[in-house]
What does this fold into?
Amino acid sequence: MNMFLSGNITIELLVGYIEGSLNDPHRDEVHHWLETDPANWEFFNRFKEAWSNPQELIELSKENQEKDWSFISMTLHESDKVKSGRNSKRLFSRWWIRVAAVFVMFLSITGGYYLGRNTNRPLSLTGGGYHEIVVPAGEKSKLILSDGTKVWINAGSTLRLPNQFNYISRDIWLDGEAYFEVTHDKVRPFLVHTSDLDIRALGTKFNVKAYSDEDVIEATLIEGLISLETWNIFNNRVDEVFVQPNHKAIFVKKKNPVISDEIIREIDEPLRPKRITISKPIQVEQTISWREGKLVFIDETFENIASKLERRFGVSILIENEQIKKVRYTGVLKNISVEQALKAIQFTARFNYSIHDNTIIITDETTVDQK
It folds into this structure.
């Protein structure tokens, strides 16, 4: 998990130097590194300030940091029960959470190459009695509907809704991801229509991830009750499956789907195409963290992480090394740029990256960085 700055100098060595815990050879090594280049002194002094005053630099409050850590450590503990023996590099300690957080926030202060900034605005298109809300990649949006329902819409999503709800039901259509806090109405159910199924609610909080270009639809219930309705091709009737809080309903669109590590951890049974599977009890934080500007990764492959970064920041990421795709990472990142996210992941994986417009190319350390 070493983050190499140059030569043999790592973040761990700098922290040890600051705290006076290094042995003589390592201390001399840092001394030599500082004396070889004035830029090293500048970097060290700024990092020392960040390390000494983390509460002034980290946007997350102490309460949120503890919450994030409790969530990660508990999830890793449960994951290890199933996957003990997997050779995986992880951020195991509060010390490493502090290192990663301070280093990422330090980068935000000293500057970096920003991609995916808030340069666009969600588009609202009106026609035929409907509004269509388009949220570009790299953006997210919040709406309050006419019935008081609150909707957070994630990047790369489209939400279609009528100009006015009718007297029978409240229908919307989603391609993408959205989080709903539905105003209770015992007469008119709230219906979220996706490409393959409908989600029905009266008044509740839930998250739906239903991108048309992905193989899986997910509906995660936070509180209340929802049901999923889908057409059963085997018996030609509508199946209705109810979901309890802290559970996720998973619908697979086709055979041999691409399944995320997150879903694999959450289920106890094989997934079958065109059927709804209910997860075991889960912690919902990882699923809904996007709403607060967080990226939460639990023992997730870099390949899966890259696809999330692409949608979050509106970039294209090409990983040219197959081994780097398999590297696993655990951590919480909040309100940072895509380059800062990559630098945080470099605590775990050794790789180079170069940025060309909105394309990021990931290579191994032996490749010369052309950035």
Remarks:
- The longest strand covers residues 170-181.
- Residues 54-62, 84-93, 105-120 have pLDDT under 50 and may be disordered.
